[in-house]
Amino acid sequence: MPMRPQRPCRASGCRALHRNANGYCDAHADQVKSFVRERPRESSTARGYGYKWQQARAGFLVKHPLCVKCQLNGLVVVATDVDHIEPHKGDMTVFWDRSNWQSLCAPCHSAKTAAEDGGFGNARR
Q1: 63 and 104 share one domain
Q2: How many Å apart are CA 22 and CA 64, to the nearest integer?
């Protein structure tokens, strides 16, 4: 079986070549970043985003086709996501409360979710 080609180490300033799958040479193997969840995430259907949600989402986007955040900035952008204004955190009463829904474009939804969930280096709210 052929050997994996050598690649440069991902560590800053290191020019050592290696064949490790983690991207670091043996000297910098301790710098491998691993993402470990506290508990495994349930499937989207188990979290409430099944067929019923897909139908409700599609209907909401027909009635509210523009991104709410972009409209506040004077832009006209087509919404692709239905967002829960206040995170439901598994509470199905809050999940299905349509007054808690807003239409957002993908970039606005990603930024809002990252700010709430601690993504992109933000503190978890």
Answers
A1: yes
A2: 45
